[in-house]
Amino acid sequence: xxxxxxxxxxxxxxxxxxxxxxxxxxxxxxIITEVAAGxxxxxxxxxxxxxxxxxxxVENVARRELEQVRKQVLEEINKDSYNGVNLFEGTEPxxxxxTEGDNLAPNSPLAGTNPKDPGVDISGIVSLxxxxxWNKLVNG
Length: 140
Description:
Helices cover 60% and strands 0% of the residues. The protein is mainly α.
């Protein structure tokens, strides 16, 4: 058997074996996954970090500029208002306050009262004085 004839017989067999290994056994998908992971880790991380840092710097600069403008506007308003007198001079903000959903805030008139207390029954008030006083109040 000559070399050319051997090559002609073996080449299709080897080609078929390689295709079978690559496609049917999942070797190709593993190679693609590893290459994609390698590309992703080596290229995208530095770019993302630079963008995040740049975005934060821009946000910080914008926030500082906004605070400066806000302070300038408040200073201008305070100069004209109350003839330059600071109404809140020597005062401090309150140290604590109730939350919006808190029904038993310390400054509430009902603080310390049981929320399940039925209170006073006022259903008989209308019948006092046979309703004459209430009619005067309602009708004028």
